[in-house]
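Q: Predict the bound structure with magnesium ion.
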Amino acid sequence: MHEDVAEILLDEETIQGKVRELGAQISRDYEDKRPILICILKGAVIFTADLMRSLTIPARLEFMAISSYGNRVRTSGVVQILKDLDMSIEGEHVLVVEDIIDSGLTLTYLVDNLRSRRPASLRTCVLLDKPARREVPFKPDYLGFVVPDRFVVGYGLDYAGLYRQLPYIGVLKPEIYQGSA
Ligand code: IMP
Ligand code: MG
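A: Predicted complex:
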């Protein structure tokens, strides 16, 4: 275990099992379709890469980057598109892939924004849900795990840009981010 991690919440095997389950479910639900997966940079990169490889249907891949917390552990509530899609999604089946839903502000903004581009359908697939901190109601269509109100890193999730490469999801030791929240 990494020395900055206090506790492993979800080990590699548990995550991989869930990703395969989600991939199978999505493959069934989109059986005769060719959805566009929108990976929300950067946190959802690892999840999207694994999820996509567990799909048995043809799928396309797009990226979007949304303003993040920077080096802080709480959201500012201000959402900004830093990198937009390369293509139109009008008439397409769109599946947004995100790492974690916390306050709900990011996904609420994103879904409203994408819906205005008139896709044929729009769903969300989120690896982690931290319902304790929700500020606006939001329920993902596909969900991996519910997690407690702790700051987690690994499997794409970062603190100050680090820890994304950990194959598990762990709780970051509070002393690592104390003073910057
Ligand atoms: P929301 O708008 O508060 O739902 O923010 C969701 C975003 O906050 C995610 O895409 C993450 O980038 C970030 N985030 C929220 N909680 C955590 C956490 O525990 N670890 C790492 N990033 C987090
Ligand atoms: Mg993120």
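A: The two ends are 24 Å apart (CA to CA).
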